[in-house]
Amino acid sequence: MDHGTHHQHHAHHDSGTSWRTAAQATLHCLTGCAIGEVLGLVIGTAAGLHNATTVALSIALAFVFGYALTMRGVLRAGLPLRRALRVALAADTVSIAVMEVIDNTVVVAVPGAMDAGLGHLLFWASLVLSLALAFVLTTPVNRWMIGRGKGHAVVHAYH
Q: How many CB atoms lie within 10 A of CB 39?
């Protein structure tokens, strides 16, 4: 299937299941983001890093893991590394950025969450809340992008 045919098929397919498609793309993105986000917050909190440093670490790791999960799939489809990286950047950058703005804003905005420590429910509850809100608020962004052949629509050509 060439790219034009794939895009037409994808656009037609999205007309009936666009929210489902967007939710699946968002869940895929959330998986990578959550791994990096949790790892960054755990490392930063356990090491006693400043809150800003911890947030920066969690954002960086969210992008690394988000891109890595997408690259794993497209590398399996036979793309060379440089092309796989370009596909991952095109597919996930906006989605990861939106998620990171939302989930870090929530974690920082919850009073005491960043200072609660790993053994406190407040830390984990704010993290779960932040990721859930990121999923809900990023899904419409992904729906809009997929409907225009952007974002995760780029990856679908390699499935």
A: 16
